[in-house]
Amino acid sequence: MSNTPHELAAEFPEFVEKMSALKQENAHFAKLADEYHDVNRKIHRAETNVEPIENLAEEQLRKQRAALKDEIYGMLRAA
Fold this sequence. Notes:
By secondary structure, this protein is mostly helical. The chain has helices at 8-11, 16-25, 27-47, 55-78. Helix 2 (16-25) packs across helix 3 (27-47) and helix 3 (27-47) runs antiparallel to helix 4. The longest helix is centred in the last third of the chain and has 24 residues, at 55-78. The chain is elongated and about 35 Å long.
């Protein structure tokens, strides 16, 4: 599964360079990006039935991913 939907670089292509720099400069941003990546992978694995989970658990993961994405976007805009 080489193409995972919702990767940060695909979500914010205009901020790819800024994301790379922030990951190096800002520990909080790096932590958020790593957490987003982990949650996104769990969702993708659930969607593709590699590791199925209950609907409620998947919904919670989607909400968590959205909250992380919002915070990441805010930091990218502010930088």
